[in-house]
């Protein structure tokens, strides 16, 4: 029997959507999990506390309520923990808010990342996984291969992620980390972020409210949370080199298809159509062949099944929507 190596892993942003699912998975797989999260009020703090409680039901973990913008505290915490690996998910997400408050993204998505990279280096960590985004591809014809991100971005969120990626390269060189930059494509599923289209629509539909759809002809490479977690887990455990990898479904879903699927669950659905918002790209579409080759990554959950699971979860957890 091959013995699973027990890793000490810091998950920044572990009280968030992706981070809490990841923490559960890592605990189940026998790793030692250290969550760092300041419970940023971008969306409900109650929801984030509930994420932490959900993790607890899967086993013990360590939690620090720490803002990674605090350089000294971040350094001290990393040196105290001396992690083997760091999955850096903490960030301010969301395109729309980044247009309103661009400087907050310089703080939370760039400066905090630099603090994490410096602290990781001083603490002797060997592996970093950085959560980047499909938004770094801007408005281009897909499928997007990793080489297609050239900085022609259209929102402060995307600009901050692209810049943070550059800092990852700098520190990879300085400290010799194995650095894996994962570009996630529109993640959805149970406990999905309430500011994102699927989460927002389902909440409104459960309440019998009209939903507002921005922009005709849009499409998203919606990726189910389990597939994202699988991609991160493989990155942590499979022997691989530093690289940038798309973690998506590889199957873009048009807004019309999303609405048709939602209508199966909510037949009385009412829709208000508006023009597209600044900063939103028209279509995302991941080329996932590199992740398949290097990690053996294979998305498993098709969109219909993923959406069914998400609606089921939302109906059972209405109080947290
Ligand atoms: P989330 O908002 O649910 O989680 C982020 C967590 O980070 C939050 O709990 C927040 O409190 C914490 N945080 C933010 N700044 C912090 C700081 N300075 N110090 C400590 N904690 C801090 O978001 P998510 O959807 O789980 O996204 C996780 C990561 O994946 C983010 O980097 C996001 O940009 C990236 N990403 C997400 C998606 C998606 O579709 N959800 C797509 C592409 C990329």
TrEMBL record:
Protein name: UDP-glucose 4-epimerase
Superkingdom of the organism of origin: Bacteria
InterPro entries: Epimerase_deHydtase, NAD(P)-bd_dom_sf
Residue span, NAD-dependent epimerase/dehydratase domain: 9-248
Alphabetic keyword roster: NAD
Any one Pfam family match given in the protein's UniProt record, by short name: Epimerase
